[in-house]
Amino acid sequence: MYKILEKKRLRPTVTFMKIEAPLASRNAKPGQFIIIRVRPEGERIPLTIYEASNKTISIIYQVVGATTRLLDALEVGDAILDVAGPLGTPTHLPVNQRIIIVGGGLGCAIAYPLVRSMQEIGNEVTSIIGFRNRDLVILEDEFRSSSTHFILVTDDGSAGESGQVTIPLERLLQQDFYDVVYAIGPLVMMKYVSLLTKKYHVKTIVSMNSIMVDGTGMCGGCRVSVGGDVKFACVDGPDFDGHLVDFDEAIARQTIYQPTEKAHDQRACRLLQKVPHE
Amino acid sequence: MNKRQPMPTQDAALRTTNFCEVNLGYTDNQAKLEAARCLQCKNQPCVAGCPVNINIPAFIHLILEEQIQQSYNIITEDNLFPAICGRVCPQEAQCERLCVRGIKGECVAIGRLERYVADHVPSCEVTTPKKLSTKIAVVGSGPAGLTCANELAKYGYQVTIFEALHAPGGVLMYGIPEFRLPKAIVMGEIQKLKSMGVQIIPNAIIGKTLTIDQLFEDGYQAIFLGSGAGLPRFMNIPGEQYKGVFSANEYLTRINLMKAYDSSSDTPLYPAKRVCVIGGGNVAMDAARCAIRLGANNVIIVYRRTEEEMPARVEEIEHAKEEGIQFKLLSNPIAIVANNHQEVCALECVQMKLGPLDASNRARPIPIPESNFQIPCDSVIMALGNYPNPLLSKETSTLQVNSHGCFVIDHTLMTSIPGVFAGGDAVSGAATVILAMEAGKIASQSIIQYLQQKNSST
């Protein structure tokens, strides 16, 4: 059992959680993920590591289905049934480069530790973070203080620039030279970022958050087509060359279990109403 | 006396609606009648056919004497897990194949008797062994790891098993379905190991959570790798990425380990009504039989040779047929077809014919030109076997693997890293439970020798 040490609402639907996980934290590096299970009948879901230190793992999650809903019902002092990790190949950290890191929505929780690590080892990092509206913005101060340049974008313009992350991104790419772009967020965002950077011939790394069961290469559920080859996001990734990923296929595969997932989420809601948490 | 006692089974029509065990096990009377068929041969050919050399005539004789506890003790001298092996060992290719009874009639049903003893023993308590201070790490809690851990614990070593998933058992938990091997039985067998003092740490992916070097740093004196064959094969045909195409590993793990068949489970399944399962092994039968239990109207096994060449056990093929699984033989898939939503709607195959024998001594299937045809379906499950999981070798540069990704070992089962041994599917490629157990047992003896030598030289 893995005890919850801290829980902090960042936004009404976005939450930070620090979990006691001495084994999983020991070798954890930026870009890796854990797999959690919250109840005996529960499914296994991957969550990217936000921070790993001193025998703990921190995550930032949003309630999107049954498991995150059940997770969200747990409080400090409660325990998570299973935490396995760290999984996936750590993000390759370049040195002395001009880097743009694009984060979208919850993807910013993964993008931020990357910004910090990149900056620490002497890269020049420009962060572009995008959200649907002002109420969903997370980690703004953290990004601002850790980046050389910082741009906030919201779809409706309620905070920062108005529009999509690709607008400031294109402006930057037109003005200046950059070595590499990292894009972490919804598949659609990563697709359009990759299309844009391809036009400007800037190497782009994306982080694929595919459906998976074990996270060790056993199920093959997370397979992604990359440059015509089939790769497993759990072991070969989650980072891939954005110019080679077949995003349309990935977007279709993301919805494989959608009808059942909805039903399970509704059941989770009912379960939680029956056992209200203090 | 020429016929063996039949295995009582759950009615075929009824069992396709549940996940309860299909084989119900012998009654006391049946067990005695069957035990009486054993000729108690002096040269014991059956024992030589058993990968772990259980004293078969001795345990069978004790059934006749109604000494079930003693019979059980005889088995567990060589195999701690008779309730598992009695159910899933391919006895017909091992001990039973060499049974003298089989020359003129049907061989003694050794496997069924083994299961009978395991299911009826009054107490399966194990003696707690003496304790040595030496720590040994076992990677993977499948049949190879469990057997190796058992032998080492019996010797007195402090054994810790590291399991990547949340529950121990490996393929016994995630691969073999409940109706063939109930999970409560697997857990019961593993409990015996725990009561011997073996520690099991779940959620520990060696290579990631801890490296081999870190295990040594943490004080483990030797390591056994039983990480299994967990990398699913696909066919590399067009359409494999469509929605509705799954590896048997994913399909079976969702159902067995994650209990997706149980309505209280949060693990989702793809709702399929017409399922094609590609392959002819036990895993293909397991996947097909799960699909029919989960409400598919049609389940079709697609295999490129004929039934004769199928690697699955005869019993599994028979059970599958009784449950209404269809067999489309001499058919080789060449593409998966989807609708506008990228959902599978058909499997395109080419008709095959049998040619001369190939390297595996099976007739080689040859495609018949212009014989393409489509099987309408909404899901395709690939049960084509597994490669060894590359995670550990990828993370451990000094660990040598061959071109198939299998760990390279010497005659003592030691890998390229001194003190690190390996066995089971991780070495052989996908094989059977009992062969993995055999490897685990041999490795344990090598580890004991290695540690004795190491200690005497220091």
Structural key phrases:
heterodimer, A: about 280 residues, alpha/beta, Elongation Factor Tu (Ef-tu), domain 3, Rossmann fold, 2 domains, seven-stranded mixed sheet, five-stranded antiparallel sheet, 17 strands, about 30% helix, about 30% strand, globular, B: about 450 residues, five-stranded parallel sheet, 18 helices, 16 strands, about 35% helix
How far from one another are the termini of chain A?
20 Å
**Gyration radius of chain A, rounded:** 18 Å
Oligomer: heterodimer
Number of helices of chain B: 18
Q: For the largest beta sheet of chain A, what order do the strands appear in spatially?
A: 12-11-10-9-13-14-17
CATH architecture of the largest domain in chain A: 3-Layer(aba) Sandwich
The assigned structural class of chain A equals alpha/beta
Determine Rg of chain B (CA atoms, Å): 23 Å
Biggest pleated-sheet summary of chain B: 5 strands, parallel
Count structural domains of chain A.
Answer: 2
Average pLDDT confidence of chain B is 94
Specify the helix fraction band of chain B. 25-40%
Poorly predicted segments of chain B: none
Shape of chain A: globular
CATH superfamily name of the largest domain in chain A?
Answer: Nucleotide-binding domain of ferredoxin-NADP reductase (FNR) module
Terminal CA distance of chain B reads 60 Å
